[in-house]
Structure formats: structure tokens, C-alpha cells
């Protein structure tokens, strides 16, 4: 039987990987651009792929241990449908946030400071002229889509966890970044925002990345559960 500490360790490692690769790709993109005048960097496609691949790989790796949430917004979606206790959900959050913070501080130690400071360590931020309200709505919609796919492929027993769940969830993150990346950074994950924000001390509109994703995640879980899932035994 898998214990709660084992689940927390899986959530820590999985979330660490997402932030280390995802935020790291943004820093490396900036490093490439600063290396020589006119250098193109990696671009949005590569950054989206880095996030999507990291999530796909780690969900496939730890999904059978912890469910592969790697995101407080996914955990709140599972919690509102009464598929985990309040204490377990809070401990998942602790593990996820700890993994994000550890990854962020490790990035500051190994990536040249000029590169990571120029992009605030990949901390998501609102585009110029994009309001906090619009940011919260966009993050909520993007996270709704993400958590909907999580429920459809991983939580739903009729889904395809053993086959394509990690792949489908990673592709959803890539899809969301193509739209949200230039506007909000497409965090879809409070831990993804908090780790780099803490390490870089960049807190602009930080609340957007908690309110939007948590609302979107809870709404997606509640609606999918009400429409398609049997209620878990008490």
C-alpha cells in the first residue's frame, strides 16, 4: 500500500521537474538571446513543449503513486469532488509548493544571474495593458481545460490513464501556453507561479495566479464530477 509520505515525495519530485524544466526553459531562452545580438532564442513553441513534456513525463512516472497532480489547482479539483480528504489535499499542496521552491532556487544557483533576472526566473506576468481581471479569467479558463482533461483521462475510471493520460495532459498545457503564454504566462498552477516569484522576488499581480487557477480547477472538477462520475463511497 502506498503511504501518504510516498505520495508527497512523488508530488514533490514531479512538481520540481515541471518548474525546473518549465521556468528553466524561459531562462535558457533569455540566455540564448543575450549571447549574441539578434539571436532568436528558443521561442514560444519550445517553451510550451518544455512545460508539456515535463508534465507528460512526470505524470506518467508518478501517476500510479500519487495521481500525478503536480498542481494545487488539480488537487483542489479532486478535493471538491470528495476524492481526497482536506488534510491530504493540504499536504499535497505543501509537497507541490516545496518542490516548486526547491526547483526555483536551484535554477538561481546554476543559471547566470543576468539571464534569470531579465525574465524574473520565468515567473508568469501579465502583458502590458492586460488587466488583472482579464488575467484571472484567462487563467481560470486555461486551468479549467487542463483539469477537465485530468478528470477525463485520469480520474474517470473509464479514462485512459494507463495509456495516454500523461500525454493528453501535457498536450493540454502546450495548447494553453500557445494562447495564454504571451498574455499571462499561462501558469495554470499556483506552485508554478509561487516558486519562481519567491526566488526572484517578483510579485506583480501574483494573486491572479492563485485566484484564476484555483477557481478554474475547482469548477472543472465539480462540473465533470456532476455530469459523468459516480459519487465515491463515504
Describe the structure in your own words.
It contains 9 helices and no strands. It has a single domain (4-228), classed as Glycerol uptake facilitator protein (Up-down Bundle). α1 (4-35) runs antiparallel to α2, α2 (43-66) packs across α7 and α6 runs antiparallel to α7 (165-184). It is 74% helix and 0% strand. The mean pLDDT is 94.
Give the SSE map:
Blueprint: H1 4-35, H2 43-66, H3 72-80, H4 86-110, H5 113-118, H6 132-155, H7 165-184, H8 190-200, H9 208-228
Helix pairs in contact: 1-2, 1-4, 1-8, 2-7, 3-4, 3-6, 3-9, 4-8, 6-7, 6-9
Defining key terms:
0% strand, mainly alpha
Query: Strand count, sense and closure of the main sheet?
Result: none
The CATH superfamily bears the name: Glycerol uptake facilitator protein
Give the rounded overall mean pLDDT.
94
| Helix/sheet category | mainly alpha
Distance between the termini: 20 Å
Radius of gyration: 17 Å
Order of SSEs: HHHHHHHHH
Helical fraction equals over 70%
> In CATH, what is the class?
Mainly Alpha
**Total individual domains:** 1
In terms of DSSP E residues, the strand content is under 5%
Which oligomerization state do the chains in this entry correspond to? single chain
**CATH-defined fold name:** Glycerol uptake facilitator protein
Amino acid at each position: 500500500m502506498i503511504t501518504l509520505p510516498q505520495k508527497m515525495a512523488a508530488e514533490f519530485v514531479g512538481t520540481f521537474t515541471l518548474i525546473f524544466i518549465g521556468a528553466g526553459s524561459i531562462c535558457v531562452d533569455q540566455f540564448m538571446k543575450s549571447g549574441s545580438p539578434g539571436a532568436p532564442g528558443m521561442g514560444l513553441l519550445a517553451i510550451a513543449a518544455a512545460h508539456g513534456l515535463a508534465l507528460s513525463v512526470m505524470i506518467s512516472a508518478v501517476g500510479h503513486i500519487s495521481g500525478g497532480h503536480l498542481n494545487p489547482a488539480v488537487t483542489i479539483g479532486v478535493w471538491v469532488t470528495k476524492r481526497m480528504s482536506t488534510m491530504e489535499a493540504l499536504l499535497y499542496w505543501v509537497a507541490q509548493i516545496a518542490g516548486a521552491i526547491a526547483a526555483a532556487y536551484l535554477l538561481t544557483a546554476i543559471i547566470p544571474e543576468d539571464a534569470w533576472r531579465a525574465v524574473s526566473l520565468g515567473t508568469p506576468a501579465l502583458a502590458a495593458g492586460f488587466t488583472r481581471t482579464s488575467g484571472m479569467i484567462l487563467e481560470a479558463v486555461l486551468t479549467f481545460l487542463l483539469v477537465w482533461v485530468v478528470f477525463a483521462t485520469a480520474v474517470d475510471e473509464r479514462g485512459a490513464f494507463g495509456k495516454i493520460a500523461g500525454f493528453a495532459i501535457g498536450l493540454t498545457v502546450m495548447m494553453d501556453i500557445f494562447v495564454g503564454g504571451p498574455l499571462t504566462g499561462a501558469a495554470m498552477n499556483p506552485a508554478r507561479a509561487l516558486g519562481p516569484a519567491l526566488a526572484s522576488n517578483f510579485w506583480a499581480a501574483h494573486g491572479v495566479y492563485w485566484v484564476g487557477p484555483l477557481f478554474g480547477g475547482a469548477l472543472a472538477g465539480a462540473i465533470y464530477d456532476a455530469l459523468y462520475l459516480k459519487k465515491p463511497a463515504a
